[in-house]
Each structure stands twice: as C-alpha cells, then as structure tokens.
Design goal:
- 57% of the residues lie in helices and 0% in strands.
- The protein is an all-alpha fold.
- It has one domain (19-29, 36-151).
- The longest helix is centred in the N-terminal third of the chain and has 13 residues, at 38-50.
Length: 152
C-alpha cells in the first residue's frame, strides 16, 4: 500500500459531508498524519488482508504477546527499529508495506545505501520471512542479527 497524495484526499473530501466522516476515516485511516493509532490500524489492515492473526505474528517474531501488543498499539514506544522489522517480517509484509509501517512508527525506511538494509530488502524480495533464517543469513555476512524485544 502506498501513501495517498494529500491532493487526492482533498479531492475525496470535496464530495463528502459530515455524515461521511466515519466511512472516510475508515477508508483512509492509514494515511492520516499524526494519528497515534495509525500504525496499529495499518498493521491490522495489512494482517487482516493477509489473514494473519496478531497472535501468530508475535509468535513468529519471537516477541511475547503482551509486549508485542503494547508495541503495535503504541502503548509502549520502542526505539528498536529491528522490533518493527521483526513484526513486519512475521506478518509477511512486502517491502512497500514494511517501509510504510516503519514510517508510520517514526523510523526510517529500509535504505538501499545501507548494506544490512539491502540484505533485508533482498530477503523480503525472496519471500524469506523466518526470523531465525534471516538472522543466520545476516550473521553469515557479518551483520548484526535482528534485535529482539529484550534489546529495546
């Protein structure tokens, strides 16, 4: 999912009334700026579309359900970019989806001039989402494995 340009959202609003507020917000929630729960709604939307349960994401990301839930709902803010990457990998996010999630959370997107990020991009392109396999491949190339929740 890509970001909608503001002018496109403005054009939609020209045809709406206050009665349309809930529908508009539901359809465009992930594009809204500065909405504390935008990250949560975006994650849920992507996972729902892929029919992946949050419980399975926490398990695959090797994150406790209580901690993962707090991170996704932004009740606790992590400074660990790898944590968001782990959650996205566990949700089988595409590169665009992951970059959108990182951006919504306040982190920089995967960067094509950073060798470790390049490796992650290529692993995503190859549809490799297993955290342990990814960590092994990163370490085999001399890169740090993805930090877990205990490294916050």
């Amino acid at each position: 999912m890509q970001d909608k340009p503001t002018n496109e959202l403005n054009a939609q609003l020209e045809k709406k009334t206050l009665a349309d507020l809930d529908i508009y917000l539901n359809e465009n929630r992930s594009y809204m700026a500065d909405e504390k729960l935008a990250f949560y709604y975006y994650m849920k939307d992507v996972l729902d579309r892929k029919r992946i349960r949050l419980k399975d994401v926490y398990s695959s990301a090797d994150v406790s359900e209580s901690y993962g839930s707090k991170i996704i709902r932004m009740e606790k803010h992590t400074r660990n970019r790898d944590m968001i990457i782990r959650l996205c990998l566990a949700g089988h996010f595409s590169l665009d989806e992951m970059n959108r999630a990182l951006k919504l959370y306040g982190f920089r997107e995967l960067y094509s001039k950073n060798a470790r990020d390049v490796m992650l991009i290529l692993l995503i392109n190859d549809r490799i989402f297993d955290i342990y396999e990814i960590d092994e491949k990163l370490q085999a190339r001399g890169y740090e494995p993805l930090k877990s929740d205990s490294c916050d």
